[in-house]
Amino acid sequence: MKISLKLYRYNPEIDKKSRYETYQLEADPTDRILDILEFVKGYIDGTLSFRRSCAHGVCGSDAMRINGQNRLACKTLLRDLHGNKVTVEPIMGLRVIKDLIVDMDPFFENFRTVLPYLINDEPAPKTERLQSPEDRERFDDTTKCILCACCTTSCPSFWANDEYLGPAAFVNAHRFIFDSRDRAADERLKILSAQNGVYRCHTVFNCTLACPREIEITKAIGEVKRAISTGSLK
Amino acid sequence: MSARSTLRPRSVQPAWSFEYIMWFFTRVSGLTMYLLALSGVVGAFILGARTQVDLQTLLRWMFFPNRFHVEPYLDDAAFWVTAWWQIMQILIVFFAVSHGFNGLRVVIEDYVGRSFWRPLLRSVVFLLWLAMLVIAVFVILQA
Ligand code: FES
Asked: What is the complex's ipTM, to 2 decimals?
């Protein structure tokens, strides 16, 4: 099928302002947006810049705005877009470095703020810290996060203020707060109930719609809010 | 297999912060305003609003049960100027003004990052909130 591909372009060494470039291409409905971008880079314009690594929805490096929605280019088929017009732009709320590449530093800075690692100072048992299947199940959903930033950069609160920790940070905090082996839930809850924490979330649900891993993010944030108010980690 | 070694406390200290308290207040004050408005309407009906008051007046009465809103209609309006209704009015004004200004505060916290504007705007909202309350209470007690 014939498609018209409109790409956001910005080269800081040449362009004063960002611009759009449109390409007329031949593509298959089963092509992924990533394949199409690779084609443009390989055969039309080698300066086109974007991130990708695994090409299988695992590494989270190719989040971009495809026809206005945050998606992974490697998980989006042309036929999913129901039409032959495709617009690809960088994710919002982060500074564009070049073309579709944004500066992810503020995003990872926020991620680190919530202590996204296991904290347990009790002496380690001889073999391993065991956990029942039910206890593991409790935070299963939030272990699926691949830190692609689709959620955080779809959130109006984050667009307004990048100090807002954002849904990805909350998801990763949730993953440890409800882990029965972890001991730092109270510390994390304090961070999450502060100025830039969960109370900047206004339940817009953009994050849940954007998540390529289908994590129920708004629900996870709700559970964090409940833990803040009652202290219960059930 | 040994029993699981992770007998952790199933709860921790709640992490109440200013943000949490205001989040909670938003919900409670919203609900309270409904209850107060309802009690205002019930009061008006008991006083005879069924036959003597039109809808606009009733709505005004609902959200601000001030005696001037019903005086031309109700003969025994004097009854409403009792301490009980003054307290009701002060409560409804307090919840409405605080709920609204907290909303403005949230907009500032959401949209104004760390800059010189933030403390400035916060103080403006705080002072406006205080001024509104003082003026409203003054009007209610004078009425
Ligand atoms: S390239 Fe790894 S998630 Fe798409």
From this structure: 0.85
Residue with tokens 């732009």, as numbered in its chain: A89
Q: How many domains, chain A?
A: 2
B1 is a domain residue: no
pLDDT per residue over A62-98, tens digit each? 999 999 999 999 999 999 999 999 999 999 999 999 9
Nearest-CA residue for ligand 1 atom 1 is A55
| Pairing of the two strands A96-98 and A101-102 | antiparallel
* Ligand 1 shell residues, CB under 6 Å: A 52-55, 57-62, 72, 74
Distance from CA of B20 to the nearest CA of A (A): 6
Domain shared by A52 and A131, yes or no: no
Cβ distance B12 to A185 less than 8 Å, yes or no, reads yes
Nearest ligand 1 atom to alpha carbon A146 = 3
Alpha-carbon radius of gyration of chain A: 20
- Nearest CA to A144 among A225, A203, A57, A83? A57
Ligand 1 atom index nearest CA of A57: 3
pLDDT tens, position by position, B88-109: 888 989 999 999 999 999 999 9
In angstroms, the CA B116 to CA A91 distance is: 28
Interface test with A, best of B2, B7, B12 (most A CBs within 10 A): B12
Domain of B43 in residue numbering reads as: 22-142
Which domain, by its residues, includes A81?
A: 2-102
> A112 and A222 share a domain?
yes
Q: Does A160 contact chain B (CB < 8 Å)? A: yes
Q: Is residue B9 included in any domain, yes or no?
A: no
